[in-house]
Amino acid sequence: MTTDTPADERVTRAWSRIMEWLADYAQPSYAALKPGATEDEITALEEALGASVPEELKALWRLSAGEDGVDGSGLMLGAWALMPLDAVLAVHQTQMRSQEEDGEDDSADEDALVVWKPSWIPFCAFGPDDTADGLYVNGETGEVWQWAGFEESEQAYKSLPAYLELMAVSLEAPLTAAGPEKPGMRGGALVWGPPSDEKRGDQWVRHLGQAPPRHPAKTLGAIRAALPGDAGEEFDEQRDALDLADPEAVAAFRDHWWGRAVRAQEELEDDVAAALGGNVLAQPGNKLAPEYEATLPPAIRHVPPSLADIRAALRHESVRARFSRDFMDAIPPHYPALLLRWWDIARLMADPRGDRAVRAVVNGRRTG
């Protein structure tokens, strides 16, 4: 993203990525987000603050005007909580009162400590109910600073867009997360850690980039294909006995078995992720270490083709480029499935008709 992009647009893009990630991976945290603020609410806040709110901060609040927190934990990078607007106003007023009191005591001292300025707008705190310290946007410079009680503030991030973009990247590529805080899960919620509290630390699991399961389409054929073998026979028996003229019975049957297919896929995904445990050194096409291979589900224990085999078989540069992009976007636990899918495509391209069809799809053209 170029530096010419307006700050508020950068915030909107970054926060939208973060919300999408929360919706996929951390539903409790996603549910803790408050709805976006209206223009009237933001205008009323500015009037109460007696100061203008930076456009980038307005862009954030239009999407999410704070959070409720999950079990006392904030979801923002650094384990901060996104403050509701009433808390923003309360902190700002409290800090300004402290500044006024200090100003009276040190009115003759040119080097007196600056506790707060009207243009400093807080947006994060230690917790939803703990606002003793947190982060604010300096409305004059756009920088993000951290305050801690009555200590002198210190710069934390270059800007609000930079802070949110770092958070988005740390969530989307957690193995390369910069800084001491790593994204993790506790009770299904996003918790940056590892937590210093021993009890919470024992419950915290670092997120290693496992992709959410790709659920089957809600059709009988897709559901049947997604079921493990032992459940497939039971599905067939119930389907054959089903009265297809009864829409309610068909819908109930479909919903029940779709739920079972989803659970089966999620269990397989969990098994794969647990087996690799974030072991990014497991290279596609090579055998895993015995301790990893022994824990893999039998369905994917075989060795997939190597990258070189697939690239050579694909033959066309445009198709190879698409394969390379897919591979770069993949998460290590999903390499086997990715490689097998592209190996199937490579074999399809051995037939002239299949070759034309694959290239048409990859190049974005419709084909029969």
Features:
single chain; 368 residues; elongated
Walk me through the structure.
The protein is built from 15 helices and eight strands. A five-stranded antiparallel sheet has the order 1-2-3-4-5. It has a three-stranded antiparallel sheet with strand order 7-6-8. Helix 1 (7-25) runs parallel beside helix 4, helix 3 (39-49) runs parallel beside helix 5 and helix 12 (307-314) packs parallel to helix 14. The chain is elongated. It has 368 residues and is of the alpha+beta class.
Biggest β-sheet: strands ordered side by side in the sheet? 1-2-3-4-5
Distance between the termini: 37 Å
Overall average residue pLDDT:
78
By helix and strand content, what is the structural category? Answer: alpha+beta
Number of helices: 15
The fraction of residues assigned to DSSP E strands is: 5-15%
Helix residue percentage: 40-55%
Helix/strand order: HHHHEHEEEEHEEHEHHHHHHHH
The low-pLDDT segments are 278-286
Task: Specify Rg, calculated over alpha carbons.
Answer: 26 Å
